[in-house]
Amino acid sequence: MRGDFQPKEQSLGAFLEAHRQDPIATALAVIHQLEKLKPIRPVPVPPFSDPTMLEAWRNGAPMHETKHAEFAKWRETVSHRTYQIGENERRLRSTVWAEIALRESHPDMAQLMAAFHSDMWRLDRVSDDQVEREKQIAERLRAVARRR
To answer: pTM (2 decimals)?
Structure first.
């Protein structure tokens, strides 16, 4: 009975099959969203006013009640920055994938993506090698996160 019900696997399989059938259409759809795929400048996180108290909290001690409001605001800023960095990774990986997918069949569109990467992400050329590409992505994400 347990093996008869597999909706998650089937729906995921259907999604993957549709993607395999027309990845070019998916890549072309990314181009139409470029304005929404520019890097986000992550908010800077100021240091917490009491580093000793913060370190104690990281080690499991409760935050002193006089610092609750300030700490909540600081944590919200850290959380927002973390979200922005994650969103940047999603954006960069999506556009890099699209550029690679379009290189053979739509070189003009791939060139548009390359110009986008150069202008927005300061990525001169997306590598054909996957290991090198992962290094490029990681370096660009770190660089964007450091910009203030």
So the answer is: 0.76
